[in-house]
């Protein structure tokens, strides 16, 4: 697109094929109960950022089109982008047939754990959407979901082979990663078994000799072409894997050299790195426990790697370790090059081990003290009174001495279960009580709310998890309001009244004249 007038040369305008992958980023699709359409707010944000980069580079909004296969996604895109870019054309796949634009951004929407693609499986629609661009096309999708369909998988393989691939982490910084539980091994084994079965069938078939003047079947030539293309794709994928492994090893060597050189405080990689190289740098730095930050935008985007901040005790330990090494090795001053560099990570791990040993020793001492004076320890716990919950039935059983009577132990447990678990509350929960889902204790109706008895943080995190999974925010208690709309109710009431009037007018009067 840089050959257009007034368009700057950046990564977005110089790449004709761009795939923005949202797999594992937690940007799942949203579902509306009353509608069959789908939407994805995470992909809307990514499209917004990509359109912003194109327009800032000089591409006019009237030369860009945003296409989505679902009407709900089209509505979300219009709410987000129409005010910022009035000339931007946002339409569905069916509504954009027969049109062309210089740049097209396609949002495939579907992102779920089941791998369902819906009517994205219709090859003609996706073919129409992809072929509408003249100079630049960007596809935003979840490859783990979309790859379950053969045609879409071929599209993604083509874009990864001949275009540029980016992750959603490069666009949105505060994404919560999501681990997919779906496994593609079964699909791969099924495909391999089908391919082997077809090969066996071809081998087992008797080779019928062609008669003179009879042409070869087109099926055999197509099979040969398919086999050749499979070999080419396998060789290309193996070459790409070897190339990525070599590139990973090179970047890892640079990072390890930086870790050994204590005089160097920061390692900055050049801005010529592509998105794949930047992803490798992030992964390697995360494995080695280093700080990695990306700075700049567009062609000036680069990654810096630095060491984590070291606390004062760790520095003192490092100095003590160096002094011990100088004492044990007398010739260290004469041969400084033979001494290995100081590894701060190993020192930190040793320090953590020592602290863990101290904690274990303190815990053993506390256990011994509790065994000697169990009653005193139990009374001191009651005296503190900091926790908002009482000792439950299990705590009473654990704190009781081994020589206590079994009947008294059972009675104490039953008493603890029959009273509200809130501190200083003696209300009975045998008839009216509420079980907390987070701490699994019984509370009276005055203290059963999680925010009252101390489970507020757990309740908030549970609510956030539910909203992120379902994608729907319900008012009130978190359950969907199933009450009918007032306008719909009034319309149905009017319809019923009119129907009753018609039936009353059609009803025949009864014959009152009956001879007795």
Report on this model:
The chain is α/β, with parallel strands linked by helices and 516 residues long. Among the domains are: 160 residues, Rossmann fold, CATH 3.40.50; 50 residues; 66 residues, no CATH class. It has 17 helices and 13 strands. The strands form four sheets. A six-stranded parallel β-sheet has the order 5-4-6-7-1-8, sandwiched between helices. The protein has a three-stranded antiparallel β-sheet with strand order 9-11-10, with helices on one face. β4, α3 and β5 form a beta-alpha-beta unit. α2 crosses α3 and α13 packs antiparallel against α14. About 13% of the residues have low confidence.
In short:
This protein has 17 helices and 13 strands. The protein is of the alpha/beta class.
List keywords for this structure.
516 residues, alpha/beta, Rossmann fold, 6-stranded parallel sheet, 17 helices, 13 strands, 48% helix
Give the SSE layout:
Layout (H helix, E strand, L loop, with lengths): L10 H4 L2 E5 L8 E2 L6 E2 L1 H16 L7 E5 L2 H11 L7 E4 L8 E7 L15 H8 L2 E9 L1 H4 L3 H13 L1 E4 L17 H20 L13 H43 L5 E3 L6 H13 L3 E5 L6 E5 L5 H17 L15 H29 L1 H11 L8 H7 L6 H13 L15 E2 L6 E2 L6 H4 L2 H15 L15 H21 L10
Helix pairs in contact: 2-3, 8-9, 11-12, 13-14
